[in-house]
Amino acid sequence: EEEKIRLGYEKKFKRLKDLNRKGAEPEKLQATQSSIKKELTKINITIRSIDAMSNKVHKLRDNQLQSELTKLIQG
């Protein structure tokens, strides 16, 4: 899913550059910029979601390790 979003962003960004280079109408440029902003929003949401999951994994790992270390120390 993340790769699909990234590829969509790159494709739209390339289209914007091409339209800009060709001197396209402002409406086309604005429409493409708007779709790029939507892709960026999706990317940012995905990044935040991954960060949240990663933090949960780290907390679980740390809690389990702490428990195991305590058991080892106490013998």
Automatic annotation (TrEMBL):
UniProt domain DUF632: residue ranges: 2-75
A Pfam family hit: DUF632
Entry superkingdom: Eukaryota
Protein name, UniProt field: DUF632 domain-containing protein
Source species of the chain: Nymphaea colorata (pocket water lily)
Upper classification of the organism: Eukaryota, Viridiplantae, Streptophyta, Embryophyta, Tracheophyta
